[in-house]
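Pilot study result, target chain (98 residues):
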Amino acid sequence: MPGGRGLDPRGGKTGDTRRKVTRCGKFIRDDIGSDPVKYWGIIADKLSAAAWSRGYCSAVTRDGWRWIVDAHREDGRRYIVHSDELLTAFLELEATLL
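Predicted structure:
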Protein backbone atom coordinates (compact mmCIF):
# COMPACT_ATOMS: atom_id res chain seq x y z
CA MET A 1 0.00 0.00 0.00
CA PRO A 2 1.57 3.29 -1.02
CA GLY A 3 2.45 5.59 1.83
CA GLY A 4 1.99 2.83 4.40
CA ARG A 5 -1.60 3.82 5.15
CA GLY A 6 -3.69 1.11 6.75
CA LEU A 7 -0.83 -1.25 7.62
CA ASP A 8 -0.44 -2.93 10.95
CA PRO A 9 2.87 -4.39 12.23
CA ARG A 10 1.87 -7.95 11.24
CA GLY A 11 1.71 -6.97 7.55
CA GLY A 12 -2.06 -6.98 7.05
CA LYS A 13 -4.50 -4.17 6.57
CA THR A 14 -5.76 -2.55 9.73
CA GLY A 15 -8.63 -4.69 10.96
CA ASP A 16 -7.74 -7.51 8.57
CA THR A 17 -7.70 -10.86 10.38
CA ARG A 18 -5.70 -12.63 7.66
CA ARG A 19 -1.97 -12.73 8.11
CA LYS A 20 0.14 -12.18 5.03
CA VAL A 21 3.27 -14.28 4.76
CA THR A 22 6.19 -12.76 2.91
CA ARG A 23 9.48 -14.49 2.27
CA CYS A 24 12.50 -14.23 0.06
CA GLY A 25 12.67 -16.79 -2.69
CA LYS A 26 11.78 -17.67 -6.24
CA PHE A 27 8.00 -17.65 -5.93
CA ILE A 28 5.50 -16.24 -3.49
CA ARG A 29 1.75 -16.70 -3.16
CA ASP A 30 -0.52 -13.94 -1.98
CA ASP A 31 -2.80 -14.44 0.99
CA ILE A 32 -5.68 -15.80 -1.14
CA GLY A 33 -3.49 -18.38 -2.93
CA SER A 34 -3.54 -17.04 -6.47
CA ASP A 35 -1.21 -18.38 -9.17
CA PRO A 36 2.38 -17.45 -8.27
CA VAL A 37 3.62 -17.12 -11.87
CA LYS A 38 2.85 -13.61 -13.03
CA TYR A 39 4.42 -11.45 -15.71
CA TRP A 40 7.41 -10.83 -13.45
CA GLY A 41 7.98 -14.60 -13.52
CA ILE A 42 8.29 -14.48 -17.30
CA ILE A 43 10.88 -11.71 -16.98
CA ALA A 44 12.71 -13.76 -14.33
CA ASP A 45 12.87 -16.69 -16.77
CA LYS A 46 14.27 -14.38 -19.47
CA LEU A 47 16.95 -13.18 -17.04
CA SER A 48 17.90 -16.78 -16.25
CA ALA A 49 18.10 -17.62 -19.96
CA ALA A 50 20.49 -14.66 -20.39
CA ALA A 51 22.79 -16.07 -17.63
CA TRP A 52 21.61 -13.71 -14.87
CA SER A 53 20.98 -15.10 -11.39
CA ARG A 54 18.21 -13.25 -9.58
CA GLY A 55 16.45 -13.05 -6.29
CA TYR A 56 13.99 -10.82 -4.52
CA CYS A 57 12.46 -10.10 -1.17
CA SER A 58 10.09 -7.61 0.39
CA ALA A 59 10.51 -5.39 3.40
CA VAL A 60 8.27 -3.12 5.42
CA THR A 61 9.55 0.43 5.75
CA ARG A 62 8.04 3.48 7.38
CA ASP A 63 6.65 4.36 3.93
CA GLY A 64 5.06 0.93 3.31
CA TRP A 65 6.11 -2.24 1.47
CA ARG A 66 9.30 -2.17 -0.64
CA TRP A 67 10.48 -4.85 -3.05
CA ILE A 68 14.20 -5.42 -3.54
CA VAL A 69 15.19 -7.31 -6.69
CA ASP A 70 18.78 -8.38 -7.32
CA ALA A 71 20.33 -9.65 -10.57
CA HIS A 72 23.97 -10.70 -10.86
CA ARG A 73 26.34 -12.64 -13.12
CA GLU A 74 29.47 -14.68 -12.52
CA ASP A 75 31.58 -11.92 -14.11
CA GLY A 76 30.81 -9.68 -11.12
CA ARG A 77 28.15 -7.43 -12.65
CA ARG A 78 25.26 -6.80 -10.26
CA TYR A 79 22.07 -4.71 -10.33
CA ILE A 80 19.79 -4.05 -7.38
CA VAL A 81 16.41 -2.38 -7.85
CA HIS A 82 14.07 -1.07 -5.13
CA SER A 83 10.41 -0.47 -5.93
CA ASP A 84 6.93 -0.25 -4.41
CA GLU A 85 5.77 -3.04 -6.75
CA LEU A 86 7.44 -6.32 -7.70
CA LEU A 87 6.49 -6.05 -11.38
CA THR A 88 7.91 -2.52 -11.63
CA ALA A 89 11.25 -3.72 -10.27
CA PHE A 90 11.41 -6.61 -12.74
CA LEU A 91 10.39 -4.34 -15.63
CA GLU A 92 13.27 -2.01 -14.76
CA LEU A 93 15.71 -4.92 -14.76
CA GLU A 94 14.32 -6.14 -18.07
CA ALA A 95 14.77 -2.70 -19.66
CA THR A 96 18.32 -2.41 -18.30
CA LEU A 97 19.68 -5.91 -18.84
CA LEU A 98 17.80 -7.54 -21.72
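One observation from the pilot: The radius of gyration is 15 Å. A full batch analysis is planned for the follow-on phase.
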